[in-house]
Amino acid sequence: MKNSGRLIGVGTGPGDPELLTVKAVKAIETAQVIAYFAKQGRGGNGKAIVEHLLNAEKTLLPLYYPVTTEIEKTDEAYRSQITAFYDQSAAAVAAQLENGRSVAVLSEGDPLFYGSYMHLHVRLANRYPTEVIPGISAMSGCWSLAGIPIVQGDDVLSVLPGTMAEAELQRRLSDTQAAVIMKVGRNLPKIRRALEASGRLAEAVYVERGTMANAVTTKLSDRPEGEAPYFSLVLVPGWEAAR
Ligand SMILES: C[S@@+](CC[C@H](N)C(=O)[O-])C[C@H]1O[C@@H](n2cnc3c(N)ncnc32)[C@H](O)[C@@H]1O
Description:
CATH class of the largest domain: Alpha Beta
Strand order of the largest sheet: 3-2-4-1-5
Order of helices and strands: EHEHEHEHEHEHEHEEE
CATH superfamily of the largest domain: Tetrapyrrole methylase, N-terminal domain
Oligomer: single chain
Bound molecules: S-adenosylmethionine
Helix content: 25-40%
CATH topology of the largest domain: Cobalt-precorrin-4 Transmethylase, domain 1
Number of domains: 2
Strand content: 15-25%
């Protein structure tokens, strides 16, 4: 423990490199190893956000997901593969820490909010000096980009994964003032139906690649039907004055 390196979970924010915190920039500049999660063969969005801070002196440690959407998440094969992957990733990071090298693990948005970093954190934080640097979450970046006051006063905000069953999504949308629906992608047709059934479709705003160069913001009802890219979410404002 004494001579080991430091584990740093670094929130990279929603996409715009100018939304990195000063602390995140410093951590990336000083860490010897930069670890990041990505799909096989891809660079990873977290890495793209901090590309301007990387140089030849950094050791890059890509952690490639063995599966993403090919297998249903409820499938036992998915669970065992993803658990083994997080175990192996934690071992790869631990090997660097054991050598006294500090490892910054990039995490889009905030690391402890639906971020893969947390799977390393729970495996390593009790063994190595660890710090988590919060990031601006995707939802915060998206409602700021869209200029939507999301909640005020006593409004309740529900954060709902779009992967949820349609009836449950509808029930929760009927029982909240404001909502953020994450993990939209292929779930968008189902989300649209749940919003319609709960009477919230007219207020819903769709944001794609929020704060990135090619961001899209539109009322969901104006968007063509069909699936959405991975980096998209839906905002349902609670505050009536915002509509
Ligand atoms: C695994 S979660 C990561 C959340 C992240 N840790 C955060 O703090 O926002 C990924 C989901 O976040 C949303 N997301 C992330 N970045 C986004 C962006 N720039 N624009 C729209 N949605 C985004 C999408 O719904 C995506 O499916």
